Amino acid sequence: MAFRPRAFRWPLVTLFTALTGCGSESPTTTKPFTGPSLSVIGHGQTTVRFTAELWTRGNVAYTTTWGQRSGTAVGNAVYLWNIGGNTPVMVDSLIVENATTLGDIQVSDDGKLLVVATERANGSIVIYDLTDPLKPSRLTRYQTPNTSNGVHTAEVARVDGTLYAFLSIDPPDAHLVIVDLSNPENPREVMVRNMGNPFVHDVFVRDGLLFTALWDDGVTIWDIGGGAKGGTIANPVQIGNVRTAAWSPSAGGSEAHNVWWFQDAAGGADAKRFAFVGEEAPGSGGSQLNSSNGDIHVVDVSNVSAPREVAFYHVDGAGTHNFSVDEERGILYAAYYNAGVRAIDVRGDLSTCPADQKAADGRCDLRKMGRELAAGLSNGQTFVWGVHFDGSFVYASDMLSGIWKLTAATRP
Amino acid sequence: MRFRYPRVAIAFAIAGAIQLIVPLAVRAQMAADSMAPRDSTRASFTLRAQAIGLVTRLDPGPADRAYTEGYLAQPLIMAHGRVLDGHLSGVLTLDFEGLTLERGQLNMGAYGEGYADRRHPHTYLHEAVAIASGAFWRFGVSLAGGKGFVPFGTDDPMTRPFAAYPVNHHLAQILERYVVIAAARAGPLTLEGATFNGDEPASPGAPPDASRFGDSWAARATMTPHALLEVEGSFASVTSPEIVSGGGRDQHKWSVGARLRQPLGPLSDALVEWARTDELVGDVRANQFTSFLAEGSTSLSRASVSARFENTTRPEEERLADPFRYSRNPTDLSIIGITRWQIGTIAVSTPVSVRHADIAPFVEVSYGHPTEQLTPSAFVPQDFYGSTSIWSASIGLRLGIGSMAHRMGRYGAGVPNVPGGTMAGSQHVH
Hints:
Largest sheet of chain A: 5 strands, mixed
Helix content of chain B: 10-25%
Number of domains of chain B: 1
Strand order of the largest sheet of chain A: 20-21-24-25-29
Number of helices of chain A: 1
Helix content of chain A: under 10%
Radius of gyration of chain A: 23 Å
Strand content of chain B: over 45%
Structural class of chain B: mainly beta
Oligomer: heterodimer
Order of helices and strands of chain B: HEEEHEEEEHEEEEEEEEEEEHE
Number of strands of chain B: 19
Distance between the termini of chain A: 84 Å
Number of helices of chain B: 4
């Protein structure tokens, strides 16, 4: 067979194109925040593991850990911090065996129990007695076939006086498991239901209503005893659903990640009207630790059977994660990953605004409404997973470096 | 642990079964071959069994450890039959890696289906495809359906000269799906279009989710401008490959490849390919992965010497307690990093044929250099492996019995013509 070099000409052009096309890409960067800051009071640093969620009670903060760092350090630790002073000081740690990510943590409302979720393989919750908050005593590790996929979040809430844990279980077959913690040494499963597309990521429980964040299925509100629809904790009855908008019109689904049904202590006509939904979208051209997307969506739930989105808050080049709300002052604190922490005024009517403060789809833009109060850790050097307002200070868990203590925002 | 010995026993049982089945198959093939020239409308049937026994050392691997392991890799039984002068044919490939490679095969940079730094086992029913072929005007046409390869990308690594898979396997091929393929061929041009299910296999024994059939599609054009050369370009739109139930990141995939069809100078075979996969959430591109790969083989005395270079980026996802496994449900649809793998591989084998068997002892050495593409990254190769210089070496034996009249990954008119060789609509036999 004769060899004819001309036959190879365009494949060579293709090859050149291919070689030069093997580039990389960079994530979108955030714009600097120019308003008031949530000032740093202190920094409890740890870089052995990636930090995940946090919770505080009194002078103690508990932070969980995530993934794998430095080759062998996996997210199997809970760190205990003394936060009585300006700088959080690590005082102890708990290790959960056969775990690689402890994604969620919460102290019960009576301060007696600490509940830690283990994600990925060996999904479970680990329950500790907090008689001595600095020396948690393990009561049990609750693990069943219904939790083994991995517990993404474990929300601890009281319904009709009984303490329950609401476990959002990872796919395949994402589902919600509700566990009765009346006897914390022997938790009892009271409900399992498939939900979420493809995830059920978090819940919020208040006044006998259950709000579930179902990713592309948006947020569903269930009656579990307070919705007058015959629902119970063992048999929730769906009342309403809202598909919140995507941060970008081309981004597709709701990516509903977390919910907070706000009840303004100041009262008024709008006191129980709004729920805030966190949208967690992957960053554009990046990965965890350097890129994120997703807005805060304001949902009017005055008619729980027909909730509707009325407003949103957007940060360019960053996405939100978990919330903590100062309901006394009407301030929402949102973890914003690569954009740090944002404080937003959520008191009053969030659904009404002039035309120039609306997006094209008619929703009010909280930024244009002047409701952005302050930001912290917004220099792009942190990746904030969670926030917790303890009544005086704001604590932020930074995946890269540990826990930060910040001043709280003030109303104008 | 308690399953280890039964699996070894099963592996030996497979080897035994191959020994029993293949002589029968070879006789069937010989009978069919001897009949074919006299009456081309008669049925033909070929059968091949093959496997690779090898020992591999990876140094360093995860957690800065060296690993040395032995396997029976790629234990396959492949059958191809045709009737009605080739107008109706079928392909069946059984893959027993689920029994012999459940923990995965040490393979530098490999990833996919929940395995990383080990190649995952393929499904037991690797291919089962029925093909109807014919001629329409000046075109050869075919319609194929079943479980098998999607017309996208280049030839499967299983059919190429290396035991170690390239990192880009999940960028450059799509396989083990329920698929329907329409193909047309005229002269040097071959066009294929297909629809299939996007979900990747969940385990060796898990079938695709039939309810998702049709949620993904692919198209490939192949040109043979010269008898020496075959060039393909392809695109695939794959819905939620990683999350089987749907709702995960979607993929848009591109591939361009050129392969040498016949020996050219010192080269006995060669392949150059470029591939790109965009991962999408809605229509927003979340990540992009690219690959460039070049490989070729030459003969030196009785030995075949093959070399490969690839430059591929791979996604990193959260590892489990077993550092070779990762979660197939990425947290919040985010990955934890992107690693660029630059790997050079050299393989030397000395193939010999004994009656109907082909035996090829081989030695294969790879050097890899992984680096993180994004900073900060939750996956830093230097930290995870303890080094960014990684060596891998394998020694082993390829064993095959019987022959195969089928080019793996292409069906019916999707097999390109040899210029000046076959007629439109004719079956290309390897």
